Fold this sequence. Notes:
Elements: E1 20-24, H1 29-40, E2 44-49, H2 57-71, E3 77-81, H3 87-97, E4 101-104, H4 112-116, H5 118-138, E5 143-149, H6 173-192, E6 196-201, E7 204-205, H7 214-224, E8 228-231, E9 237-238, E10 241-242, H8 243-255, E11 260-265, E12 271-272, H9 273-284, E13 290-293, H10 308-314, H11 322-338, H12 346-350
Parallel strand pairs: 1-2, 1-4, 2-3, 4-5, 5-6, 6-11, 7-10, 8-13
Antiparallel strand pairs: 9-12
Helix pairs in contact: 1-2, 1-8, 3-5, 5-6, 7-9, 9-11
The structure holds nicotinamide-adenine-dinucleotide.
Amino acid sequence: YESETSKWCTPVEPHVGYKKVLVTGGAGFIGSHVAEYLLQRGDDVVIIDEMNDYYDVRIKESNLANLQLKYQDEKRLKIYRGDICDENLMLQIFEEERPEWVCHMAARAGVRPSIQDPYVYIHSNIKGTTHLMELSARFGVKNFVFASSSSVYGGSKSTFFSEDEVVDNPVSPYAASKKACELLAYTYHHLYQLNVTGLRFFTVYGPRGRPDMAPFKFIDRISRGVEIQQFGDGSSSRDYTYISDIVDGVVRAIDRPYPYQIFNLGKGSGTSLKDFIDMVQKYTEKQAIVRVMPDQPGDVPYTCCSPYKAEHLLGYKSKVTFEEGIRRTVSWYKDAYDKHDIDVCPETQANGLGRAP
Ligand code: NAD
């Protein structure tokens, strides 16, 4: 990565041996996939999750149950339920578990709800992250990796976001809370030499994906012949990133500590909403019923990731094409749907639209 010459480019020491990793938000979409990967390769995982009801808690329970079924007997998985802001609980976890690696995925996610209720975002995302960094510095954690978001680029006019060239302008409380985490990360690196890496994820989708996000909603609704809402004219574009690529990037960041770094993690090419809907129609073999709605405040029209920095400094490379990712996600959806693993889509219930028999 040639444009960056600072001392932060030098990895502290790549680490490939056994680790005990504290995964916050490990019952959620991305956290549960990362936890599963770490357990699969032989690491110990300690999960903390408050199991909040931002979306149906049964999905999080099922994510945990899936991990427990596979790994609880090996005593390499420990699960705590609680708020990362709970000082007593977190101190107890650090004292008892002594994790040397932290993968901080817990956060209140979602752009639009953060405009309605900013305080919950300040609590979980800013206060929670500060609290974890405090403990990590105090307990000598070797590497602190946390989830930031492409939303920090906000209203930037650029169409190709790179970490060191594009000025970020968060335009929602959620985005601002993630930017605040990045700033705090620098502070903790500066004050306590905590190795800390922030990862700006670009719209992540895949099996067990969040039901509040467009990929899940579209697949669910189009499959069932329920109307979908298209905000804007369909030209808005996102860099949709398949979950296994994100897990790969997160694990690379865990294994390769830097004193302080921020990386984009995305696919590196955008897909328009219209093309997205077409692809879901292809793999569900259903015709979408589309209602066109005005653009939403706080939404960003284009997000496309420049993945070069992560490619050069982490060896990250997105592997799953958009078509392949949608094919796999629809196939998972059909499986889970048939087995009644997922039986909820919160909006659908709120609208009184029952699931098709
Ligand atoms: P998720 O909501 O599925 O997972 C987050 C988990 O954190 C949930 O299980 C929740 O219960 C837990 N949590 C929230 N606040 C907590 C608290 N105070 N204490 C303990 N647990 C708490 O979301 P996700 O999609 O898996 O996102 C994981 C991370 O990635 C988040 O930080 C999110 O902001 C970030 N991110 C996600 C995307 C995406 O496309 N999914 C994009 C950019 C950034």
